[in-house]
């Protein structure tokens, strides 16, 4: 009862409100992988730091060569497609540019550049094959097949989560 005399009720209330704000306000910016089509979707995440660009690297299932997709986070937390690099053309790897794209070939490496394509999210399927699927950010490459469940799809997006949501989710090393 002595603490009530020391701390006026208004300070106690403000402290409680600040604590609740810290716990429940979505202030932590993350790259999120949210289970797609799940009743209680689990969120896997990588905390975002200063760098706005990131990449997804995977091995093409037919050509067995690396494909590197480069992206940038916009000021509105949307995803801007920057480019896609690959060695072969074919299924999922275009040999020509469409409107709003350019395609260049140098030393056998195709680079498809997107001029102004912005999306809110995309669905990423984690195949049940032993082929690389990695997330690159701030010089680190994280093997997504070690952290996400094979055979499931995930909605990838940039979002702000609360401390409570971070605690319920799964942090991916990266």
UniProtKB/TrEMBL annotation:
This is DUF1850 domain-containing protein. It holds the Pfam family DUF1850. InterPro entries: DUF1850.
